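hey team, just a heads up i'm posting the complex here instead of the shared drive bc the drive is being weird again. everything in one block, sequence lines first with there labels, then the predicted structure for the whole assembly after. its six chains so it's a bit long, scroll down
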Amino acid sequence: MRLLFVNPNTSADLTEQGARVARKAARPETEIVPATGRFGARYIATRAAAAIAGHAALDVFAREGRGADVVLLACFGDPGLFALREISPVPVVGMAEASCHLASTLGRKFSIVTGGHRWGPMLEEFVAAIGLTANLAAVRTVAPSGGEIAANPEAALDVLTQACAETVQRDGADVVILGGIGFAGMAERIAGKVPVPLIDNVVAAVQMAEAAAALKLAKPRSGSFSPTTPVRTTGLSAQLAALIEGENAK
Amino acid sequence: MRLLFVNPNTSADLTEQGARVARKAARPETEIVPATGRFGARYIATRAAAAIAGHAALDVFAREGRGADVVLLACFGDPGLFALREISPVPVVGMAEASCHLASTLGRKFSIVTGGHRWGPMLEEFVAAIGLTANLAAVRTVAPSGGEIAANPEAALDVLTQACAETVQRDGADVVILGGIGFAGMAERIAGKVPVPLIDNVVAAVQMAEAAAALKLAKPRSGSFSPTTPVRTTGLSAQLAALIEGENAK
Amino acid sequence: MRLLFVNPNTSADLTEQGARVARKAARPETEIVPATGRFGARYIATRAAAAIAGHAALDVFAREGRGADVVLLACFGDPGLFALREISPVPVVGMAEASCHLASTLGRKFSIVTGGHRWGPMLEEFVAAIGLTANLAAVRTVAPSGGEIAANPEAALDVLTQACAETVQRDGADVVILGGIGFAGMAERIAGKVPVPLIDNVVAAVQMAEAAAALKLAKPRSGSFSPTTPVRTTGLSAQLAALIEGENAK
Amino acid sequence: MRLLFVNPNTSADLTEQGARVARKAARPETEIVPATGRFGARYIATRAAAAIAGHAALDVFAREGRGADVVLLACFGDPGLFALREISPVPVVGMAEASCHLASTLGRKFSIVTGGHRWGPMLEEFVAAIGLTANLAAVRTVAPSGGEIAANPEAALDVLTQACAETVQRDGADVVILGGIGFAGMAERIAGKVPVPLIDNVVAAVQMAEAAAALKLAKPRSGSFSPTTPVRTTGLSAQLAALIEGENAK
Amino acid sequence: MRLLFVNPNTSADLTEQGARVARKAARPETEIVPATGRFGARYIATRAAAAIAGHAALDVFAREGRGADVVLLACFGDPGLFALREISPVPVVGMAEASCHLASTLGRKFSIVTGGHRWGPMLEEFVAAIGLTANLAAVRTVAPSGGEIAANPEAALDVLTQACAETVQRDGADVVILGGIGFAGMAERIAGKVPVPLIDNVVAAVQMAEAAAALKLAKPRSGSFSPTTPVRTTGLSAQLAALIEGENAK
Amino acid sequence: MRLLFVNPNTSADLTEQGARVARKAARPETEIVPATGRFGARYIATRAAAAIAGHAALDVFAREGRGADVVLLACFGDPGLFALREISPVPVVGMAEASCHLASTLGRKFSIVTGGHRWGPMLEEFVAAIGLTANLAAVRTVAPSGGEIAANPEAALDVLTQACAETVQRDGADVVILGGIGFAGMAERIAGKVPVPLIDNVVAAVQMAEAAAALKLAKPRSGSFSPTTPVRTTGLSAQLAALIEGENAK
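-- predicted structure starts here --
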């Protein structure tokens, strides 16, 4: 089974770091195929960078999606998720969406801990957009960005552990998600110090991607995620233009 | 990996039927261990039967849960789900909860099609209880109960197909779940006639159970699903009494 | 008028304590008939105990419900409420449900103060299940359980008074409910120290039960609370089995 | 016990008609004291008339409220309810609010059937304002206004019965409220033809008023319904001016 | 363009103060026509005063509305807004409604800062009534009433600035509204000390009134805001009676 | 006053058509500066096209935004709205957001009528994202896309008129918005046949843009829309890269 691991951050080293954790989490028969965004911010930490990343994710998929059995959108916040799901013939799993839904089945309230304060409202809006506000205890952000934490994880372990502990105690979280591709692999290092289940977003998303692929569902033939009518475009990569102008036609 | 497949309906043949589909859906290394409720309705189709089944599910778990790596509560509507999750040291996956969350990641709106009109409001309330009302297109029920359909599936294929088609067209469902242990294995037979992904609830729940188990999370040590303080009981099975009176103590 | 006072906690002394307060609150022509759960926890303080109590409440009703004009489910949290309402030919009043609705007519926001921290999320979920989340200021729990407080009420008066005062000041509660059968009779002792109306849950529920009975409404003949179709059962008390297998048939 | 029955419609005959039903529904020791608005529409059927009625209800209370143990605001839609509750030293029961909360304890979803199409959105907004939207199946209006129906009830029985039956069947109502002082006494005439409990709004409100009075609660000393700071006024009736300028002072 | 500036507070000096700011904010071709309530509280700070003001606003409009192109209801909290909108042939802009909607387009979450603690819950309820709860960060009230602040604005600048700063920092407001006619003109004095946009409610409402008028929309001919059927009244001013009894007839 | 009129559809003729209507609606002193997206779909009618348009809108702004006093994002559905608002030093008005908020002040419930069925769920999600779900009566779509309608408006007048009439009658809309840049100028042609106010989205957005500009608000210095920390990018236009990498730095 071929899993396209799309990182719309334009940092190939983050992609590799995430893909390593994904490979370790995946079943032996799952092939993790990493792919990195070609344009946009090195590390997505603002609304503008996320908006650009929505386009970049589509572009990556158009270039490298052929042959994939499932797509994992590996930026926590899932820029372009619904658009990718519309255009892809195979299931698309958003790393944040997958983590939040899986967390919802492990307790009544989950919290997200992530790096970079600007992600706070962005993720609250994201959780609302996927319909899970009622299950969200809180989003708690720490000062260093996910990119900075990925570059020097040791320095961040304590502040992350404390944020996790606080959201359990003060917000009543039954489960905590460490959100951000830069956090891949860190949950297992601090899980022992957090009194509730701590979710590694890459690990959770790989599980959900394998689950979705195992259902062997057909592409919808009607509704909001069915193939789109061709429309003329301008200024896009040849591959993305091809997808939108016809390849993906009803 | 050992998956306890708890059917709180007191019909062992339904358990077997569901377990067969579960085995087919599971990875080779997953052992499906079926277990059937010892008291209550043969087929759960009312609020009273569901309330009794909540107790029956706990009782089954107390008797047969030892050694399980994950528990699958295999009655769509998930009677006793949060109680079981509280008392179990390993993850508990509700068949309806798992199906609804997985469906939510395959589109924006999912519908449930099931047998027996009384399940309509009960499932709407269930979806609200797990925080997913915003993602629910509709619950559509057909007249024969899940038990009757399980006994004679051929007769029901057309009416189910039509209910699925209607909820796509009129309610805007992007995904449909066939809900009920009695429907195990039926989705693949009619999926071709339904224009959006059609979820088999047993298959979906097995995938989610394997995903939850793969996370290797520790039992919460604080909060609403942590081990409970022992309390004296009366009139329960010895095994359930033991769990509540002490074995499960902090 | 005959009011069946069902305590699904399996402590007959709590039943008596509650029934005494109920008798004092009731009109002269109301007969309070106490009944105690036959199986389950001595004092319900966990999700598992509450799930079992849902069954126990049905069992009590099946054994002792004949001749009642109204049923009062006297455990704050109302385990089995909707199931009992489905199966009973006469109105069923849940102690928490009644208190919350009555409180909602005395201000805009009500709070619940109760004993035992695990009741916090359970009661928030209950309030959501009865559709009153928008009217809830907060649930505040104190450390001793309702059972412990009932055993030694003097020791708890101060901590309860303080919790009430805090929820008025910090959560903006216009009304406060002291929730738990173990608190029966305590509200009048501390009401003078709480700056907003303080509701005694047994007193409120008796008033609502008398109000419901006075409406002389017929059992619904259609919908989610109409009589159920008979279904075979196993392992239940003879009386409960009779109710579910036929006596309660359409 | 003295119950001030405030009809903010300026039709004394409607007041009498409602008070007659109230007397029949009340306990023997409850004295029903009718009072009619002094200014505004004969029959309230618009937003403008309802806004004026909020003032008129305060004015009636200021003139005739002295000595009351409880106030019943007997116009379905409850104009001025929260203001009256603020200013009154004794509990204030709104006829619509009381009916909706009592109905909520008799099933999961209630509907309102009333006369005059303009009440449709007004009552949906009212139900939202009291926090009960989640429990509302539907508001169904028939063409003749409540005033017209009160003048010739025979002519309306069939159309009301049909509206009740429709909201049960199509909207899934477990309970129906006949809303409007003009409908007082009509529910018992058609209840036999409606397959779920049918609530007479005057009867329900009297029960809730007696329940509220029986709690013997003190006026709040803090918060949104505590006595207000005196403020100078102009152009009001002497009695209302007195209440607002000082009598009601902290 | 003629803008009727309706102040339902019965303080003509407040009307003048507000109208001065309105004139400064308006386009040259906009004529601001001030009008003051004839009965009710000098300064509205309670539910009772607001209920009376709903009637007073209608009365002012009936007397002075002829010839207006748009109506601005200039009391933050907008008493009688929907009723006025029903009865007026031209658009009606509520000062709070306009400010909240305009603020919603300048960020994701807005806060309201106002004078007088009793306005806290009243404004939360108002924001819910106009459907904007999801966009509200918080309502923060300071002790002096709007009337007191208008009388001595210098004394209040610091406490208001601090309340604004707090709601930005603690409640996550992207925008803040200074609410109350008594605050007209104050936002520009402290805006420099508040790190997010600070809205002057009179200025915002004038902009929204000019926008509404510019759309040149016809009065609705159907639905909840179309002209009402005449109904007999009693005890109203001749002009308001005329509006309700016939002039405004379909 | 300089208004940047950003059309992220890549059809310059649509931009011109919209800008003509904008000029007619604007005050004399408002200069409308049209700008068209450089890449993406000719006409946005899918999730993928909208995701790309979010990037395109940022790109247009980076190239042509200098000197603007306000930005109007003139694609109904507002792709990239929050990102543009984050990055722009002046107010950004979304055409759909502005229309929905203005419509909310003209009644209680608004509907959107637009072209292309795929916009149905996309706009429901958009309305939820801006917090206005409670005010939405319905989104009604007609078969021809906005692009097709713009190319041949005569052919569409009847079908649009009928969709408007239906949403008034069946969905209870108090106001209707014709949504889509392709509909600019059409509302006035059919308004006479629609019994409630009909909003032209370009006209409404111009009014709201002028209102926002008139407030002369400073760029937020804190929170989710304050200037962002510079971050390295790749593959963007020089102007957009400059904005994100530093020009827009705190």
